[in-house]
Each structure stands twice: as structure tokens, then as C-alpha cells.
Amino acid sequence: MQRTAIYVRNLRKSFRKRNGFRKVSELWALDDVSFSVAEGETYGLLGPNGSGKSSLIRILSTLLIADSGEVEMLGHSLPAEQEQVRRIIGRVSVDAAFYKKLSARENLLYTALLYGQKARDAEKRAIDILEQLGMENTKFSTPLEEMSRGMQQKISIARALVLNPPLLLLDEPTTGLDPKSRRDVQTFLEKLKEREGTTILLTTHDMAEAERLCARIGFLAHGKLVAEGTPEELKRRANAVDLDDAFIKLTGEELSDEELVGVED
Predict the structure, then answer these.
(1) Same domain for 175 and 258
(2) Considering its fold, how many domains does the chain have in total?
(3) 16 and 24 in contact (C-beta within 8 Å)?
(4) In terms of domains, do 146 and 78 share one?
(5) What percentage of the chain exceeds 90 in pLDDT?
(6) What's the whole-number mean pLDDT along residues 224-237?
(7) pLDDT bucket at 258, cuts 50 / 70 / 90
């Protein structure tokens, strides 16, 4: 029987929003969300901007604390065991933070050393990852501030993977990448899962990416998980010709052109 890697039950998170000088409203980013991900599974979360995807990833990666609900990551509960959780996850976000004056190499080695890895081993793994992602060795010593957003996103992915974590939390990891780079990342994730048995939670706007990588998919809308299943199950349930059509029928929403593309010109 497969072990549960990510367990989420009745998760709720709200934010207060001020409307005018005195009036304050409460916005539910996540409203009673429940799902689980088996060890070694790739699970996708699809939803438009504002649906709660990034808030969920931030809670699972210990950057936010939920208002209520249960969360376990490989048996470690949050927020009580957040230090243990931080050592078993890698996180990639579309707005990754770096030391922009430092090179790609220096950023990656800094992260590896923080987690107690040997510099030589970490550097070798980082170079191998970047080569598989289609990045030339000559860029390894270039300061991050001189790189394009797409190049910086590759460094962000490598930074999460250089630690070889059993859990990967990927928040729109291919946003900003050109089509070839996006395919390189997708191929790398497939090989990583096959080789290491890594558990992956992926948020994306790219329906084709979700269908290619994810064994199961959840549709988020207005902070609620409105549908869940394999891509084929979701299409059958909605009587849809493709996943995009299934998403629209089951959520009542449509992704914008910008969300669907998410690629640099």
C-alpha cells in the first residue's frame, strides 16, 4: 500500500481586505480544501489567478499558517513540525527570490551549504541539472541580474532540485519559459519521478502540461476544490473533448489567454 506523502483536510485560509477607511472584508483564499497525494505521485492543481493555488503552496512550504484544518507532509504535521518539513521539500515559485548580484553558481552553492551538503557534490549535481534543463555552462557564472526571467526560472528549479528532496512543490514552474525550455523541464521532471520516486505537487495554467505530467488533477475555483480525478475521469465527468473544456464546465470559469500561455515573447 502506498504511503500518503501529502495529506490536507478541511484547510481554510482567509485574508482581510480593507475597503475604504473603516470597512474591512474577509476574503477566503482557501475554503475547506481536502485532498491527498500518494508517495511518488504527481498531482496537479489547476485554477485561474486568485483561485488559491499559491496560498496552498505557501502553507505547505511553511510560509503561511492556515486558519484551520490539518496538513501532514510525509507524516510531519504543520505548523508544529515545520523545521522537519523544510528539510524534505523543494519549492519553485514564479516569483522566486535570489541574491541578484551573485552568480547562478553562487546562489545554488549557498542553498546547498545551508542544508549541509558538500560544495563539490552540490556543484556537480547543479551543473548536471542545468545541462538537462538546456542551460549552457557559460551561464553558470553569470550574475542573476543579467539573466532573463526564463533563465532565472531555470535556476530556481535547479535550486529546489539540487537538494534532491522527496517532495517537490512547484508553483507554475514553467511560466516565463520558451516552448523548448518548457519541454526540457517537463522531460526532466518525468525522469526525476521515474528515477527518484519524487512526489510532486504542481500548480499550472498549462492544460497540456498538467495532462502530460499529472496522474491526478484537482480544479480550484474561488478557494474551493470543485473537482478531482485523472484527466480522463475529469473529461468524462464534464462530457468534454479536452481538459480545457472540462475545466470550464466544472468550474464555470475560463483561464485568460495570458494564463494559458505564460511564455516570454
Answers:
(1) yes
(2) 2
(3) yes
(4) no
(5) 44
(6) 95
(7) very low
Place of cell 475554503: 31
**Calpha distance 207→188 (Å, rounded):** 18
What pLDDT sits at residue 11?
A: 96
Please report the pLDDT score of residue 255 as a whole number: 54
Which set of grid coordinates corresponds to residue 196? 527518484
Q: What CATH number does the domain containing 83 carry? A: 3.40.50.300
Do 30 and 77 reside in the same domain of the chain? yes
Give the residue with greater pLDDT, 102 vs 249.
249
CA separation (Å) from 253 to 21, 98, 146, 206?
32, 34, 38, 15
